[in-house]
Specification:
By secondary structure, this protein is α/β, with parallel strands linked by helices. Strand 27 and strand 28 form a beta hairpin. Helix 5 packs parallel to helix 10, helix 6 runs parallel beside helix 7 and helix 10 crosses helix 11. The radius of gyration is 29 Å and the shape is globular. It starts with 24 loop residues before the first strand and ends in a 14-residue tail after the last strand.
C-alpha cells in the first residue's frame, strides 16, 4: 500500500488529509449530509439558499440596469469595480430581492427565518437555519435555484521559490526588467486561520527590511481586525496582514489552531526569514513575499465549513482588493451544482485567480478533486533538494568518499536531537523482498543493537513503515533505515527512522562487503539540506482523469499543473517563531497562488484565465516522473511543473468567459471540449466530436510569427501550421483527428507552437483522446424533483434525458421493480424511447395531480430502465408538498 500522506508533525496528521466528497441529493436541489442524514425532521442546521438571479460578478445587464464596469488602469486593470455606482445599485437590488424572498419563506414556513449571512457578489444567496423538511420546501420555490446544507470539507494538508523560477520575476530577468516580489497584490486564503504573531506576516520583513504598504492605508484593516464590532482580532493585523475573517463564528478570532492555514499563507506570500528547525538553519520565503494577505477562516474544529467558504469567496469579491484566492481544501467534484464551486466561478468572473488542491488520495486514478474548469487544480511534486541528517559509514580501514556525508531523511517526530555514532549496520535478511521486507516478524536477535536496513517500495508495500519498524525493534534494532529507488521515502514511522536513496545505499553496501572489519554508521545532528532529484509526483497527489459521471460523461484535464508539495518548510501555529515541514497538495497549491500573484503584478492586464494559461502552457515537462521513478502522464502532472521564468514571458494566451463556463454545464447539454482551455480532452472521439479549436491572443508589444506542430497523434491535422500575429490580435487553431486510427485507450499528444523569437518560450497544450468505445451512457438532468402545490391542481414537471456515451440507448419507465410503483398523483410521458449518440436530449414530463390529496408531503421514486450497463435502473426521487388553501402558492421545480 502507498504511504499515508501526512504532515511532518504528528499533531496535524488528521487535519490535513484531503478526502473527496459527494453531495447526496435527497430532494430537488437540497444537497449535503444534513439533508441526507438528519433523521429528526425537527433538527435544524445551517443551509445556503441560492437564489436564481445572477450575483454581481455574473450580472451582464438585460433588465434595464447598467452592468457594473471594470477598473480601467493600475494593478487591478480589468477587475470588477465593486465600488462603482452601477455595482452598488445592483447589490442594493439583490439585497431587496433577498429580503422579499426571505419574507416569502417566512410566510411559507410560518415562522421567522433570520438570515445568518447575505451574499451578493460571488454568489446570490442567504444563509439560514432550517430543518431538512423546511429545506425541501424552500428548494421547491420558483425563485430559489437550490438549497445546500453546510458541510465539513477536509483540509489538504523550504525554499521552493527558486526551484519554480520565482527569483526570475523577483530580479526582473523574466519580466522585461520589471522586478517585483508581489508589491501591491493581495492574496486571500480560505483556510484554518493564521498565526498572526509569526514574523512571516510582519509589517516589516525581518531579513530584507521591506516595509509593506497597506492598500487601505495604515491603521485601516478588514473584518475582525477592523474598528467595527465584532472585531475579536483587533490589533492582530498590520500593513502586510490587512484582514482577518472568521465565517464560522464572527465573534471568534481567526487564530490558527492547527497550523494548516499559517503554512499555506507563508508559502504563498510569507516574508523572507531565516529560521531554525531541528538544529538546522534555513532561509525561507513565500513565492510572493511582498504581497499583502487576507485570511478567511472556515475552520469549524474538524475541517472547513462549506458555507463559510462560500461567504469567504463572496467577501473576497465584495472587498474589491483580493487578487488571488488559495483553497487548499477538498471539494469541487460537482462544479455546476456545488455552491463553493459556483462562488469560485463568480470570483473568477470578478477578476480573481483561484488555485485549489488536487487532493491527497493518489496514486489511484480518478482521485482528483476540484474539476472546475475555472479553477487551477494543483498536483504535488518534489523539490530538487531534501532536508536530512548526515550519514557516514565507518570502517576500520577507512570508508570510501561516496559513503560519507550522505543525506538521510527523517521519519516523524520525535526525531533525534544529538549525534548517533558507532551504530552497527545489519541488512535485513529479506532485503530483496521489495513488497514485504519487515512485514513479518524477524527472528529474535536479528538486529541486536544495530541499525536495521530494510527495503521499502511504497507503491507496492504490503504494510506500513511503522509496522516494519516495530518488527525490527522486536528483533533488537536500535533504529531503522528504509531504502528504495526514486526519491527519498516519506517515512511515516516515528523516532529512530530514516530513508536513504538506493544509489547511496548500494555504495555503502559495496563498501561493507569489501571490508573485513565491522561496519558502523554515524548519523549526525543537526538537520541540513541535501540534493535530491526534483519533479517526482508525490504518491499521495490526486490523479485524473475525473470520474466520468462528475461531468456528464465528459472529461477535463485535471490536475491542471504541478508544484512542490513535499517537505515544505513554512510557518505554523504554536508560537511566533514556529515553523515545520508538511507534505500535501495543500502545500503545492499556495505555490501556484503565489505564482499567480507575481504574474498579476508584472502582467496586470492578463485575466485570471490568461494567467492560468500562461502557467499551464509554459510549464516544465522534462523528466517528470512518479515518486519512485516511473513514467507519468498528464493525469498525474497536468500540463507540467510550474516555471515562472517562462510563464512571465508567455507569447500566447487563452481566455474564457464566465458566460461560456456556465453554458458548458454538461447537464444542460454543454460541451467541455468547446471551452477555450490550455488543454484538450475527448473521451469518446467520434466523427462528429473529434475536432477542437483554441483561440490564442498575442499579449506582447510586438508582432510574432509562430509555427504549429502536432506530436503524438497519427491521422490528425492542425490548421493553420503557421501564422503571424500582431500585438493584441487573436488566432484560431483547429485540430482534426481521424478516430479510426486510434486505440480504445487514452492516446496522449501535444500541440506545440514555436515563435520566431528565441526569447519567447514555446506554447504547449497537452491533448488526451480516446476513441468512441460504443458504450451508451444515460444522463439525467437531476436525480431528484420536488414541488409545492395547492390542492386540486395539475402541473407538468420535466426531466431531461440524454446520451453521454456512444451507441443508442433504449429506455423505458419501470413501474414493476421494487420501490418503483407509480404513485396515483403522478403521470409519466412518454414511457419509452431511444437516445442516439450525439443526438438531441429527450424531455420526460411528470404530471403532478393534487386532486383528492390532503395537505402534507408525498414521496415516490421514478425508475428508468435502459441499456446503460453501468446504471441499468436509474432512480429519481419525487417529493410533493401539498399546501393548504391558505398557504402562499409557490410553483416550479428545481432540477439542480
Amino acid at each position: 500500500m502507498p504511504p499515508t500522506p501526512r504532515p511532518l508533525t504528528l499533531a496535524l496528521a488528521a487535519s490535513i488529509a484531503l478526502l473527496p466528497f459527494a453531495r447526496p441529493v435527497t430532494a430537488a436541489g437540497v444537497d449535503g449530509p444534513a439533508a441526507a442524514a438528519a433523521g429528526d425532521a425537527g433538527a435544524s442546521a445551517r443551509y445556503l439558499i441560492v437564489l436564481r438571479e445572477p450575483a454581481l460578478a455574473a450580472y451582464r445587464g438585460g433588465d434595464g440596469r447598467t452592468p457594473p464596469p471594470r477598473i480601467a488602469g493600475g494593478t487591478r486593470r480589468g477587475r470588477l469595480d465593486v465600488n462603482a455606482g452601477a455595482a452598488r445599485d445592483y447589490v442594493a437590488h439583490l439585497a431587496g430581492r433577498q429580503a422579499a424572498v426571505v419574507a416569502g419563506i417566512e410566510r411559507q414556513l410560518g415562522r421567522p427565518v433570520p438570515p445568518l449571512a447575505r451574499l451578493q457578489h460571488a454568489l446570490n444567496g442567504v444563509v439560514a437555519e432550517l430543518t431538512p423538511a423546511e429545506a425541501a420546501q424552500v428548494a421547491a420555490r420558483s425563485d430559489v435555484a437550490r438549497v445546500e446544507a453546510d458541510e465539513t470539507l477536509p483540509l489538504n494538508a523550504e525554499p521552493g521559490p527558486g526551484f519554480i523560477g520565482a527569483d526570475a520575476i523577483w530580479n526582473g530577468s523574466a519580466s522585461g526588467g520589471l522586478a517585483t516580489q508581489g508589491e501591491g497584490i493581495v492574496i486571500g486564503l480560505i483556510d484554518s486561520g493564521i498565526n498572526w504573531r509569526s514574523p512571516s506576516f510582519a509589517a516589516t520583513g525581518p531579513v530584507d527590511g521591506h516595509v509593506h504598504v497597506n492598500p487601505l492605508g495604515t491603521g485601516h484593516y478588514l473584518g475582525a481586525c477592523g474598528a467595527t464590532a465584532p472585531n475579536p482580532d483587533l490589533g492582530h493585523c498590520n500593513d502586510k496582514l490587512i484582514g482577518l475573517y472568521n465565517f464560522v463564528d464572527v465573534a471568534s478570532s481567526a487564530e490558527d489552531g492547527i497550523g494548516h492555514g499559517t503554512h499555506t499563507a507563508s508559502t504563498a506570500g510569507g516574508n523572507h526569514r531565516v529560521v531554525d528547525s531541528r538544529g538546522g538553519t534555513f532561509a525561507i520565503a513565500g513565492i510572493a513575499p511582498h504581497a499583502n494577505l487576507v485570511m478567511f477562516s472556515c475552520f469549524n474544529g474538524s475541517g472547513c465549513s462549506s458555507l463559510a467558504a462560500v461567504q469567504a469567496a463572496d467577501q473576497a469579491v465584495a472587498g474589491g482588493l483580493v487578487d488571488v484566492l488559495n483553497f487548499s481544501v477538498a471539494g469541487g467534484t460537482a462544479p455546476w451544482s456545488d455552491a463553493v464551486s459556483q462562488a469560485f466561478l463568480g470570483a473568477t468572473e470578478a477578476g480573481l485567480f483561484v488555485a485549489a488542491a488536487a487532493g491527497n488520495d493518489g496514486p489511484d486514478a480518478q482521485s482528483v478533486n476540484h474539476v472546475e474548469p475555472w479553477v487551477t487544480t494543483t498536483a504535488a511534486s518534489t523539490l530538487d533538494h531534501t532536508t536530512g541528517f548526515d550519514f557516514s559509514l565507518d570502517l576500520p580501514g577507512g570508508a570510501p568518499a561516496n559513503t560519507q556525508h550522505l543525506g538521510v531523511h527523517p521519519g516523524q517526530a520525535p526525531m533525534q536531537t544529538t549525534d548517533i555514532v558507532g551504530l552497527p549496520i545489519v541488512r535485513s535478511p529479506s532485503f530483496d523482498n521489495l513488497t514485504g521486507d519487515g512485514c513479518s516478524p524477524f527472528a529474535a536477535g536479528t538486529f541486536t543493537g544495530a541499525l536495521a536496513v530494510l527495503r521499502l517500495r511504497p507503491a507496492t508495500s504490503a504494510c506500513s513503515s511503522t509496522q516494519r519498524k516495530i518488527n525490527a525493534e522486536a528483533a533488537g534494532a536500535s533504529g531503522v533505515l528504509f531504502v528504495d529507488a526514486g526519491t527519498y521515502i516519506p517515512v511515516g514511522a516515528t523516532g529512530a527512522a530514516w530513508s536513504m536513496l538506493l544509489a547511496d545505499w548500494e555504495n555503502v553496501w559495496a563498501a561493507i562487503q569489501a571490508s573485513p572489519g565491522a561496519a558502523t554508521a554515524s548519523i549526525r545532528f543537526p538537520l541540513s539540506m541535501y540534493p535530491d532529484t526534483g519533479d517526482h509526483i508525490a504518491d499521495f497527489s490526486g490523479r485524473g482523469p475525473n470520474v466520468a459521471g462528475q461531468l456528464g460523461g465528459q472529461y477535463l484535464l485535471k490536475p491542471d499543473i504541478s508544484a512542490p508539495g513535499v517537505a515544505i518548510l513554512a510557518a505554523v501555529n504554536g508560537g511566533a517563531d514556529a515553523v515545520d515541514f508538511m507534505d500535501g497538495t495543500s502545500m503545492a497549491t499556495p505555490h501556484i497562488a503565489g505564482a499567480a500573484a507575481l504574474l498579476r503584478a508584472v502582467r496586470p492586464d492578463w485575466t485570471p484565465m490568461e494567467i492560468k494559461s500562461a502557467l499551464a502552457t509554459t510549464a516544465w515537462t522534462t523528466g517528470i516522473v512518479s515518486q519512485w521513478g516511473g513514467p507519468t502522464t498528464i493525469w498525474d502532472r497536468g500540463t507540467g511543473r510550474v516555471d515562472l521564468a517562462t510563464a512571465a514571458r508567455a507569447g500566447l494566451l487563452l481566455d474564457e468567459t464566465g458566460a461560456n463556463f456556465r453554458a458548458a454545464d454538461p447537464a444542460q447539454g454543454g460541451r467541455l471540449i468547446e471551452l477555450n482551455l490550455p488543454s484538450a480532452v475527448m473521451g469518446a472521439c467520434g466523427t462528429d466530436t473529434c475536432r477542437f479549436t483554441r483561440r490564442l491572443r498575442n499579449p506582447l508589444g510586438v508582432g510574432m510569427s509562430w509555427s504549429v506542430r502536432l506530436a503524438g497523434l497519427s491521422h490528425a491535422s492542425v490548421t493553420p501550421d503557421a501564422f503571424t500575429l500582431a500585438p493584441g490580435a487573436t488566432q484560431d487553431v483547429t485540430v482534426s483527428i481521424n478516430p479510426a486510427a486510434m486505440p480504445g485507450a487514452w492516446t496522449y499528444a501535444e500541440l506545440r507552437l514555436s515563435p520566431d523569437d528565441s526569447g519567447v518560450p514555446d506554447t504547449h497544450l497537452p491533448i488526451a483522446v480516446k476513441r468512441n468505445s460504443g458504450v451508451p451512457m444515460l444522463q439525467l438532468s437531476s436525480s431528484a424533483l420536488s414541488a409545492t402545490q395547492a390542492p386540486d391542481t395539475v402541473t407538468p414537471r420535466t426531466l431531461t434525458l440524454s446520451n453521454g456515451g456512444t451507441g443508442a440507448i433504449h429506455w423505458s419507465i419501470d413501474t414493476a421493480s421494487p420501490g418503483c410503483a407509480r404513485p396515483a398523483w403522478a403521470g409519466y410521458g412518454p414511457t419509452s424511447g431511444t437516445l442516439l449518440s450525439g443526438g438531441s436530449p429527450r424531455t420526460l414530463t411528470v404530471t403532478i395531480d393534487t386532486h383528492n390529496l390532503v395537505p402534507g408531503t408525498q414521496a415516490a421514486t421514478l425508475c428508468i430502465a435502459s441499456d446503460d450497463a453501468a446504471m441499468p435502473l436509474a432512480k429519481v426521487d419525487l417529493v410533493l408538498s401539498v399546501e393548504s388553501v391558505d398557504d402562499v402558492f409557490h410553483d416550479g421545480f428545481d432540477g439542480n
